[in-house]
Amino acid sequence: MKLTVFSAKSYDRTALDAANEDRGHEISYLEARLDADTAGLAEGSDAICIFVNDEAKDGIVDRLADVGVKGIALRCAGFNNVELEPAQRRGIRVVRVPAYSPHAVAEHTLGLILALNRKLHRAYSRVREHNFELRGLLGFDLHGKTVGVIGTGRIGIEVCRILKGFGCTVLAYDLFPNDEVKQLGCEYVELDRLFRESRIITLHCPLTPETHHLINADAIEKMRDDVMIVNASRGAVIETPAAIEGLKSRKIGHLALDVYEEEEVFFEDVSNEVLQDDMLARLLTFPNVLVTGHQAFFTAEALGNIAETTLANIDDLAADRDCPNEVKA
Ligand code: NAI
């Protein structure tokens, strides 16, 4: 199959080429993001492969169909950036990688919690300046604290497992409670109670109309003072201006973001440019905010699994057979 990979980085190429060795798909790589201007570059391809910041919305899907594309392979789990209905209408099949390493994201989440709590991001720079002062670096024991986990699917359950290892009390919220999570000793509760009682709240639900801005001013108001909020799910689950207000009023004591509502600059080096995103610029001024650029998934194991599943999905599309990872409207 002829496959065009959008937003391709060197690590994507390495992983996909390795997974393609015994397959022989014809893969071409583009650095460009998929958008209205670049969709035409897919001409001559049977399928395209896209990542989280590529937009396959209505008009773009039509353009892809016009140039002969019959498949969209997401090399990620979330598919909120693809409009499924027009794709289905134009006969474009959409496949994704539902799971590649829940451990990668869960472990990064704990990395964010630990770094932010113990102020490792500040300690690192301080010590390099030969400043060994401890004032300002005070943290708290995780042991015995209550942590709220919103979304207990593949990633959320691993987060619950690790938190139980730290001796935390875990309150969980999910539309579909999971027995395995209960067996770990976590308690499913209503969202309001989770907001009220949690010292730390970590988000692992997908971005859907119901979870869009789930963490807004009302929700933040219900939380305990000095709450830590961690988001490694999708940016728009948090309403960023409300989080900024919460930080300014000190209601939010710590905020860790691996994802952000406007990930325009994510995955790019814009260190020589003027940052145009005022919300992101404001977030980066807070000493108690830690931002990573959507890197929670980024482990060697995850990249290998993503490439393998993506090309297995492409095999299914090429053979015109059922694909277990197809998403439908
Ligand atoms: P999953 O599908 O296994 O689990 C999602 C869970 O969220 C399910 O249990 C589902 O019932 C629950 N859920 C859905 N709607 C909900 C709602 N309104 N309220 C509460 N719970 C709700 O997905 P997985 O693999 O655990 O991934 C979760 C999310 O993490 C993905 O949708 C993706 O957006 C994000 N993600 C982020 C990555 C990163 O690098 N930062 C990497 C991979 C995924």
Could you explain the architecture of this structure?
This protein is α/β, with parallel strands linked by helices. The protein is 35% helix and 16% strand. It contains twelve helices and 13 strands. It has helices at residues 10-20, 58-66, 84-89, 102-117, 120-128, 154-165, 179-183, 191-197, 217-222, 240-248, 278-283, 300-318, and strands at 2-5, 26-29, 47-50, 71-74, 93-95, 146-150, 169-173, 187-188, 200-203, 227-231, 252-257, 289-291, 326-327. The strands form two sheets. A seven-stranded parallel β-sheet has the order 8-7-6-9-10-11-12, sandwiched between helices. A six-stranded mixed β-sheet has the order 2-1-3-4-5-13. It binds 1,4-dihydronicotinamide adenine dinucleotide. 1,4-dihydronicotinamide adenine dinucleotide (NAI) is lined by residues 77-78, 99, 102, 105, 150-156, 173-176, 204-208, 210-211, 232-234, 258-259, 294, 296-297.
Structural key phrases:
single chain, 329 residues, alpha/beta, Rossmann fold, seven-stranded parallel sheet, six-stranded mixed sheet, binds 1,4-dihydronicotinamide adenine dinucleotide, D-lactate dehydrogenase, D-LDH-like, NAD, D-isomer_DH_NAD-bd, EC 1.1.1.28
